[in-house]
Amino acid sequence: MKPVVATSEPAPKTPPVADRIGERLYRFDGGLRLRHNKKIACRDPVARPALPAELVVPMRQHSGPPARPCVAEGQFVLKGERIGEGPERGAHIHAPTSGRVTSVQDRPMAHATGQPGTCVVIRPDGEDRWGERTPFPAWETSDPAALRAHIRHHGIVGLGGAVFPTDLKAGAATVTPIHTLVLNGVECEPWIACDEMLMREQPRHLVEGALILAHAAGVERVVIAIEDQMGAVERALAEAAAELGGGRCRVVKVPTVYPEGGERQLVQTLTGLEVPAGGYPHDLGLLVQNVATAAAVRQAVIAGEPLVERIVTVTGHGVRHPRNLLALLGTPAAHLVEAAGGYTDDAARLVVGGPMMGYPLGSDAEPVVKATNCLLVLTTGDMRPPQGELPCIRCGDCASACPARLQPQELQFMARAAQWDAVAALGVDACIECACCDLVCPSQIPLADWFRYAKGEVRRVSSERVAAERARERFEAREARLERARQEKAERLARRKDKLRDEAGRKRQIEAALARAKGTKDPSAEDEA
Amino acid sequence: MRTFHAAAAPHLPSKRTVRGVMSQVLLALVPGIAVHAWLFGPGIFVQIVIASGFALAFEAALLRLRGRPLAPFLTDGSAVVAASLFALCIPPLAPWWIAAVAMFFAIVIAKHCFGGLGHNVFNPAMVGYVVVLISFPLQLTRWPLPRELSSGTPGLDATLQAILGGRVIAPDGIDALTGATPLDAIRTGLAEGRPLDTVLQSPVFGAVGGTGWEWLAAAFGIGGLYLLWRGIIRWQVPVATLGSVLVMALVAWVLNPETYPSAVLHCLSGGLVLGAFFIATDPVSGCASGRGRLVFGAGVGVLTLVIRYWGGYPDGVAFAVLLMNMAAPLVDRVTRPRVYGT
Ligand code: SF4
Ligand code: SF4
Question: What is the complex's ipTM, to 2 decimals?
Fold first, then answer.
């Protein structure tokens, strides 16, 4: 209840940021207008490809430590059954279809590091039979914590690329007061269209999922951000939002500029505020989630289905029929490319994600994971011609393009010189690796690559420094301990010597006394007296 | 299963190349060069060819000496741009060895002694120009009169003889060679104690600037606007350079119109427009951040006027640019923008 008596606090002059989101848009620095290339994959509705012969399900599909496989070779699993036990800061993994586990082994997997990891390999039985599905009844009136536990139970992670466990992100709301859930439907990288298709085809699921997520995070307001070029999407979403969300849910169109879909840039566009360095949108009272995550939450809560599939855009000049596919997690990339008509003759590179930030796959045997939004097959003509790199001419184009307001030309100079302290001081940690700088550089310097490397080096150096500091402290503590021990020993020795001396002196005194008592004159005792 | 060659993101061709940028700059110089040739005859073409030849020769020699690959650096276009800018600064009938000396200092000293492309602290074209301006003042101040004030421009034959042979044959005698530039006229006029308005009665002054010279300035301005439109240069340097000259010259003119020429005359005469759009915008020796460029441009403008008013030379753009080149690293450091989120 509000206090009746007026408090000394003045009424806030401007309404809080929360009420104004979307009324006016702000600009973020830099950025690029890129050729969109999205339509090509949006001609057909999202389709489900045939079951592949084998599903390779990695145990690491989320940020944090990998899940522990909880099935044995030869075991039969039903669709949706848990096959990987998620650690506390990770997520569970579920069987994408029914079938037999043929092996649990290390396989190369689609991950930026390219490292192999433990995978559960399942041979589908072809029936795609669900195990028990567990919807969450009456979520509107439920305890948010219970709702989050349910979300965790169903293995939901952020599907925008960061794959952070959704329950943890929503749960952080209880620590900082969060006022708005921002659903990020801004798919700013060229070619990728999975979120656009999702918004087009399932606007109601998406809005419903958003409301559930908002409840789980204890948030009232929902803002769905989409690009201003997504015409059809806006109408569908706005209708669903009005119908399901009442006044709580609004759709905001933001300019189609790369990297508008970056969390930090989107927050800046919507609020004019910057996410503090090293912090999260949470620090500004915002919970940012990808639209596909909201749809997955809806599936988990209403249908009781864990996260076992996602929409993947299979596109590029290197595939014959670009399209969006609803792929089971663990489906090998080759199978999806096949479902999109196969490779063209000049296919030259397979990329997971978009052309700006996506990472290349060494082979198409690698499986789709929760983070896989796009398989992009490029031809030689799409790519950078192998052209000599020239020295930086300090044109500053990179700095003008940088959304983090960095000075890439100075950063690359310092990184080349391995001056990691200077690199850190110039703010390399704020680099979002968007590659805008890279794309505009007339000298063809692989700036983004340099900065990925530099960030790693800065982290390494600082952790080494911490380790060295600890080692030094340990060493000093040990030295101090030894020194103390030495001193104690010396003191003990000294005490013993004193004692001995004392004893010797006493003995002499006794002897002297005895001698006096005997009456014999002892010349030395005489002198002493 | 199919394997692929992996390379790091981004997987897109970059938007431009150094060669592309330099070609655009050369293209933007075309109107200026054309007007120059129309005003003063074909000398400018000969000078550009000679200067470019020496520039490329020195470039090749130094690359070889430093063990660098020849092809990428000879074709990047930077030497030709420097040579062309230099050629536009000198009198069109200056003897050939002027360009040779200047390009030696531009390419060998200013560029390669500092580490080659991208590493030079000073604008090579301006280093070359200033060296010859100081060393050979006689050859560097002998500007012919523009077409409107003389009986015609020299033909190619006469031009070649003048440049290569040092024999000056002007269509109507010596007059064609000793005409004063507008800035010279002001300087000598004022030095002789004549009031400015009588000095400005001279036929060397046209509607807004120097007769003929105003066309040249306009042509460079058009080229500059083209570069702005194509995003090759950014607005800060030209706006700050011309803006600071306008403001400062206006204040001086309001205070004392007897001695200080009008702001427009200042902007449109000498090398200011060329400097503002083509020389002070040189990326390597300038500033990289937006605010840094504003400071850099303003510095060039102010120093140019200071030299014109009180210095020993009628024009000061080259000196101003070199002085600001020295300050650029410092300016860049203090104008570095705040990083996102900090
Ligand atoms: S874009 Fe490239 S050449 Fe230009 S300043 Fe940046 S790093 Fe240097
Ligand atoms: S990759 Fe980093 S430095 Fe380059 S534009 Fe993006 S944020 Fe700026």
Answer: 0.87
